[in-house]
Design brief:
Elements (H helix, E strand, L loop, with lengths): L5 E4 H4 L3 H10 L4 E5 L11 H13 L3 E6 L12 H17 L4 E4 L10 H20 L2 E5 L5 H9 L7 E4 L1 H6 L4 H8 L3 E6 L1 E5 L4 E5 L8 H10 L6 E3 L7 H15 L1
Parallel strand pairs: 1-2, 1-10, 2-3, 3-4, 4-5, 5-6, 6-7, 7-10
Antiparallel strand pairs: 8-9
């Protein structure tokens, strides 16, 4: 298996932005994922600010793997949808300006094809896909809200290349879905990977995040399946509930390096 570049989701380090960047560099990764709501808001960043940020990253030998742009509602919800689409486009422009070609968001639960929400979501994502093709950054829907086959149904209903996928095995496991089945359904559309692990908690009726390599996600098999689909993008470490984020993320980075 060919080695894949490793990144860290800066939000997971739970440090101020300017402190998180050198920590990520010290952990030996190639790139970072920046949150366009928490770290750098597109509307607040001037051309000078973008140049300074690019220099800061270059000085640390880091690149931007992706820009995260989490929205409170999905693109299937009509309420304030125009504002959500406009803000997502600004995040796409920011991603391209920082050298990344992926914007990550959970696009909302995929509705039934005969529901009004289906048309709303398709129209919004087609619009974003066309804009992304223009500026050079693709919106990549994060897995977890539904099984992989349902998300594939959405991707395949859109113009080719309009919507990519951020594969997150931990999210799928937490919500009771099969990560391997999702790779089989979505592998050709995966543009980015969040390396997150989890176990099923039968008593609670849902899953629970655990350190990378200690859950039920079979990362060697999952990465081999992605390689079969030609995936050559980043493996980005994500942790939501680490007790010691820097320590645990450092171990996750080493775990991924051991697989490369």
């Amino acid at each position: 298996m060919l080695p894949l570049p490793i990144a860290i989701q800066l939000h997971s380090l739970r440090l101020p932005f300017k402190k998180a960047l050198p920590v990520a560099a010290q952990l030996g990764v190639a790139a970072v994922e920046i949150d366009a709501r928490e770290h750098v808001r597109p509307g607040d960043l001037s051309d000078t600010g973008r140049r300074q940020l690019r220099k800061m990253l270059a000085d640390l030998n880091l690149r931007v793997a992706a820009v995260a742009f989490p929205t409170r509602r999905g693109y299937n919800v009509a309420t304030e949808l125009d504002l959500r689409i406009s803000a997502t486009k600004e995040a796409m422009k920011l991603a391209h300006a920082l050298g990344a070609n992926v914007v990550v968001n959970q696009v909302g639960r995929v509705p039934a094809t005969d529901s009004p929400e289906w048309g709303t979501m398709r129209e919004a994502l087609a619009d974003l896909g066309a804009y992304g093709n223009h500026v050079g950054a693709t919106l990549a829907a994060e897995t977890g809200s539904e099984k992989g086959e349902d998300l594939a149904r959405l991707v395949e209903a859109l113009p080719e290349g309009a919507l990519g996928v951020t594969f997150n095995p931990g999210n799928l496991i937490v919500n009771g879905f099969s990560a391997m089945d999702a790779v089989r359904a979505l592998g050709r559309y995966v543009r980015y990977v969040h390396a997150r692990d989890a176990v099923r908690d039968l008593a609670r009726g849902r899953g629970e995040e655990v350190p990378l390599g200690r859950g039920v996600a079979d990362f060697p098999a999952l990465l081999a399946a992605l390689e079969d689909h030609g995936y050559r993008g980043y493996l980005c470490v994500e942790r939501e509930r680490a007790e010691n984020p820097v320590y645990e993320i450092g171990h996750a980075v080493q775990f991924l390096k051991s697989l490369n």
